[in-house]
Design a protein that fits this description.
Layout lengths: L7 H19 L4 E2 L1 H8 L3 H11 L9 E2 H12 L5 E6 L3 H11 L5 E8 L7 E3 L2 E5 L3 H8 L3 E4 L6 H10 L4 E4 L12 E4 L2 H14 L5
Parallel strand pairs: 3-4, 3-7, 4-6, 7-8, 8-9
Antiparallel strand pairs: 1-2, 5-6
Helix pairs in contact: 1-4, 2-3
The site of 1,4-dihydronicotinamide adenine dinucleotide (NAI) has 25 residues, from helix 5 and strand 4.
Length: 212
């Protein structure tokens, strides 16, 4: 199903709502009100209602939102009709940790293949994921229908790895290497850096100027 482009912050909130709604269902509840979802998500009922309008969900009138129904509705926005397949490049310490994490998860995302330039790390299965030589990247991306790439190589190889992903047709990249990565328009790239985030947290923790 095609939807109009949804702002990045809204997508982040929808991901969070879906996690929270799954917890609500697991606790045995079927419905909840907008103010309850807002409290769980640390935002306002008005924000929750605006987000519901964006995704076209109106809810049950008296009992609030139906958790299963809303999870399904969010899924129609966030998920592709088929599983999103990920390629990870760099099967080192971080790469392996990510492979292990995904091997125990069930959901709409899976790491379909991992790649490395070091032959001692390829032609094997790690945490249920097939590991190939990076030379085969383009072919495997096409063969397996991969649409998202994760970069876990040393910083100096981050940009060449991103270029290789873009050339193979990948449109979404998550970069863990501590180096900025340039991508052309039409490709979405986000970088994650635990130490930057920790420095920020340490600062706000120290100064007591937290936002929540
Ligand atoms: P590592 O040295 O254990 O693993 C790097 C892997 O990349 C190795 O297997 C190596 O053979 C492979 N590699 C190198 N060049 C390659 C290329 N051109 N193509 C394919 N594979 C290639 O390093 P580690 O500890 O796993 O860290 C990986 C990256 O993640 C580093 O850039 C590190 O700074 C970063 N990192 C980022 C964190 C974050 O919070 N964003 C946290 C930890 C690490």
């Amino acid at each position: 199903m095609k939807h109009k482009q949804i702002p990045e912050k809204t997508v982040e909130r929808l991901v969070l709502y879906r996690h929270l709604l799954r917890d609500v269902l697991a606790s045995g509840r079927e419905t909840l009100y907008s103010h309850e979802l807002a409290a769980l998500a640390h935002n306002t009922p008005a924000q929750v209602r605006r987000d519901m309008m964006i995704i076209g969900y109106s809810g049950k009138s008296r009992k609030g939102y139906g958790a299963s129904e809303l999870i399904k509705c969010i899924g129609q926005i966030l998920d592709e009709s088929t599983e999103t397949k990920i390629a990870l490049v760099g099967i080192g310490n971080l790469g392996r940790a990510i492979l292990s994490y995904f091997s125990t998860r069930q959901g709409a995302l899976s790491v379909a293949a991992a790649f490395d330039s070091d032959e001692t790390r390829t032609d094997r299965v790690i945490a249920g994921c097939r590991c190939f030589n990076v030379k085969d990247f383009k072919d495997k991306v096409k063969e397996l229908g991969i649409t998202v790439g994760v970069i876990t190589v040393p910083a100096k190889y981050a940009q060449p790895t991103a270029n290789m992903m873009i050339e193979a047709g990948i449109k979404g990249i998550l970069n863990f290497a501590p180096a900025p990565v340039q991508v052309p328009e039409g490709v979405f790239c986000e970088s994650i850096d635990i130490s930057t985030t920790l420095e920020k947290i340490a600062y706000f923790g120290r100064t007591g100027k937290g936002t929540s």
